């Protein structure tokens, strides 16, 4: 299973957001991070993949044209997670996952929903209300909503924004684990470039609606690229455990 | 799966089913409470006819005098049932509006549907159409209905405009309220003395216009639309978790919205056309229901309808008891009772956020 993106364009009226994004086939079992400065079109690309934006170009999953899939079928295979669950919802955790499954028309909703919670290690939250959870717990619940539907592709829009360090790693760890264990493809918009470097198999760097670089973090993260794309003077160093670290020294004028 | 995990799953399932049962019981309890209120509403009135006599009259009409028959069949029953149906229709419309617009302030009243109906009715009162085959009172109802539908069509067109978010739709609704109210005031300014009286009375909202034809029509609208609301409820629950989330879960939110707006327009236009502007039921009813049964729209929709019916039934009862010998228009009562409830709700919400 792989996802290939060819000449993907999105425009809002006369304003072109994505200028023909083309990427090498993204294979199952990998976590791809979309990075880049604000307004680069990361979220728009993700939304286009999820079918939430009108787009041109081709999008193939296993050689099959995704844009020709029906609404429900596409949603079943490519699952999208927006930034945060809205506050003030009088819903229980388990209930919210059952509600998500009910629309998909699967059977045995309760056990599927509970299993999704269990796999993320948050089955203890099942009877809590969404409103009583912390931001990190809510994000894990949102992830459980996604995983319960057994999709092939996970599309995650800033899954770790507004989360503390513990939950940043827990959410990304849960995604990684599922990606490897179930041979899924995860595409995530990540703001934190160090988190992206440590978690992703492949970085896609976007700027002004175009792909600037694409490849393994070690190949992509170079001071020249960071200067060009982010306008910062930065060093890329290896920490004592061999992980890449981007250290930003100053903003370039 | 280990035995422990299986226990956990069974326990969670048990809790979940108990939650559903509790909600079902709450809805049934509301229905029961409504029945009691309706009986109370039936039993009160200027004529002082007791509930026992009234029930006897309903089941054995021959035992009644002609006056008593008129009181039961032309006054007490239609008023009481109209309160139930109008309350249910407005509150259900409000619940759907709040779901599709993702706005706690949405209701037929706050988004201008009621005001538009009032404008239509006022036009018909001030400038009768001069159509011989339609009685003047029917003209008022038809015009109110047409204007209410027109306002929902406008709201729909706004919602389909590119780039028009939910916020702009709500602002547009508020603008609609102000324009319609201004035009109604203009009509009142230009009207003669006795037309003015009719205009004011119409805008107050009163159950005194109830009759069996209107009751039948409103009951029909509710009976036809409620199943569709319930069928849309699971998708609506997802919509409450965010538009993008719902769409990415395979919900066609555009179609969902359009169908819902159609239901809202029929429900609120019919209700408003028959009884005038009755505020706050459509706004507060769904909020109270949400406090009781939560956000699962499968329970929220019926609970909202029941709470709305209960509110208006209680208001109808209060409207007879407030001033001895005078039936205060029920629209005034709902506003008086609704505002404090609303303020309490707003502050509760503010605390929990």
UniProtKB/TrEMBL annotation, chain A:
One of the Pfam families matching this protein, by short name: ABC_tran
Q: State the InterPro entries in the record.
A: AAA+_ATPase, ABC_transporter-like_ATP-bd, ABC_transporter-like_CS, P-loop_NTPase
Identify the domain of life: Bacteria
GO molecular function, one example? ATP binding
Q: Which PROSITE patterns match?
A: ABC_TRANSPORTER_1, ABC_TRANSPORTER_2
Residues annotated as transmembrane: none
Q: Which residues form a coiled coil?
A: none
Q: Which CDD domains match?
A: ABC_Iron-Siderophores_B12_Hemin
Q: Please state every residue range assigned to the domain named ABC transporter.
A: 3-233
What keywords tag this UniProt record? ATP-binding, Nucleotide-binding
Matches recorded under PANTHER family: ABC TRANSPORTER ATP-BINDING PROTEIN (PTHR42794:SF2), HEMIN IMPORT ATP-BINDING PROTEIN HMUV (PTHR42794)
UniProt protein name: ABC transporter ATP-binding protein
Q: What is the lineage of its organism?
A: Bacteria, Pseudomonadati, Pseudomonadota, Gammaproteobacteria, Pseudomonadales
Automatic annotation (TrEMBL), chain B:
Primary location group: membrane
Please tell me whether the keyword Transmembrane is annotated for this protein: yes
Q: Which organism is it from?
A: Pseudomonas capeferrum
Regions that span the bilayer:
25-51, 71-93, 105-127, 133-157, 169-191, 215-239, 260-284, 326-347
Q: Which SUPFAM superfamilies match?
A: ABC transporter involved in vitamin B12 uptake, BtuC
Designated name of the protein: Iron ABC transporter permease
Compartments, as annotated in UniProt: Cell membrane
UniProt keywords, alphabetically: Cell membrane, Membrane, Transmembrane, Transmembrane helix, Transport
What is the recorded membrane topology of this protein?
Multi-pass membrane protein
Can the keyword Cell membrane be found in this entry's annotation? yes
Q: Name the InterPro entries for this protein.
A: ABC_BtuC-like (IPR037294), ABC_transptr_permease_BtuC (IPR000522)
Instruction: Look up the domain of life of the source.
Output: Bacteria
Q: Which family does it belong to?
A: Belongs to the binding-protein-dependent transport system permease family. FecCD subfamily.
């Amino acid at each position: 299973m792989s996802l290939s993106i060819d000449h993907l364009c999105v425009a809002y009226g006369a304003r072109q957001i994505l200028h023909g994004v083309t990427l090498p086939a993204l294979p199952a079992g990998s976590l791809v991070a979309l990075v880049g400065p604000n307004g680069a079109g990361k979220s728009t690309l993700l939304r286009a993949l999820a079918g939430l934006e009108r787009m041109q170009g081709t999008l193939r999953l296993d050689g099959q044209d995704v844009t020709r899939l029906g609404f429900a079928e596409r949603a079943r295979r490519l699952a999208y997670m927006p930034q945060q669950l809205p506050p003030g919802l009088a819903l229980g955790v388990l209930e919210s996952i059952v509600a998500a499954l009910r629309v998909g028309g699967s059977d045995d909703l309760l056990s599927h929903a509970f299993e999704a919670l269990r796999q993320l290690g948050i089955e203890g939250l099942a009877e809590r209300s969404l409103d009583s959870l912390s931001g990190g717990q809510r994000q894990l619940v949102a992830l459980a909503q996604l995983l319960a539907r057994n999709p092939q592709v996970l599309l995650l829009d800033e899954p770790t924004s507004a989360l503390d360090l513990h939950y940043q790693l827990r959410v990304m760890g849960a995604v990684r684990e599922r990606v490897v264990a179930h041979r899924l493809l995860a595409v995530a918009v990540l703001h934190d470039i160090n988190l992206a470097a440590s978690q992703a198999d492949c970085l896609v760097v976007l700027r002004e609606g175009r792909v600037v670089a694409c490849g393994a973090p070690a190949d992509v993260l170079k001071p020249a690229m960071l200067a060009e794309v982010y306008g910062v003077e930065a060093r890329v160093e290896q920490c004592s455990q061999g992980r890449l670290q981007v250290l930003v020294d100053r903003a370039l004028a | 799966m280990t035995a422990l995990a299986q226990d956990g799953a069974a326990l969670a399932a048990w809790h979940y089913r108990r939650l559903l049962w509790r909600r079902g019981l709450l809805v049934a309890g509301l229905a029961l409470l409504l029945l009691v209120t309706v009986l109370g509403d039936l039993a009160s009135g200027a004529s002082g006819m007791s509930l026992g006599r009234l029930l006897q009259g309903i089941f054995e009409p021959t035992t009644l005098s002609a006056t008593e028959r008129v009181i039961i069949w032309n006054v007490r029953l239609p008023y009481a049932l109209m309160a139930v149906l109008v309350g249910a229709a407005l509150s259900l419309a409000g619940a759907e509006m709040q779901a599709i617009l993702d706005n706690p302030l949405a209701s037929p009243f706050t988004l201008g549907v009621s005001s538009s109906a009032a404008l239509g009715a006022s036009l018909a009162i001030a400038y009768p159409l001069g159509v011989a085959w339609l009685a003047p009172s029917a003209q008022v109802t038809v015009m109110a209905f047409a204007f209410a539908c027109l306002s929902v069509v406008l709201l729909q067109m706004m919602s389909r405009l590119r780039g028009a978010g939910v916020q702009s739709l709500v602002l547009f609704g508020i603008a609609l309220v102000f324009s319609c109210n201004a035009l109604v005031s203009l009509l009142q300014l230009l009207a003669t003395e006795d037309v003015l009286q009719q205009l004011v009375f119409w805008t107050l909202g009163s159950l005194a216009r109830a009759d069996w034809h209107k009751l039948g029509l409103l009951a029909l609208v509710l009976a036809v639309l409620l199943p569709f609301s319930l069928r849309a409820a699971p998708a609506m629950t997802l919509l409450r978790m965010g538009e993008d989330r719902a769409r990415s879960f395979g919900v066609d939110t555009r179609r969902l919205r359009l169908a819902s707006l159609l239901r809202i327009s029929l429900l609120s236009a019919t209700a408003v056309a028959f009884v005038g502007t009755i505020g706050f039921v459509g706004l507060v009813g769904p909020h109270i229901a949400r406090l009781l049964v939560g956000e699962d729209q499968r329970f929220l929709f019926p609970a909202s309808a029941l709470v709305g019916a209960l509110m208006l039934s209680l208001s109808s009862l209060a409207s007879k008891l407030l001033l001895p010998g005078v039936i205060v228009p029920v629209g005034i009562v709902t506003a008086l009772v609704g505002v404090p409830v609303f303020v309490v709700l707003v502050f509760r919400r503010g605390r929990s956020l």
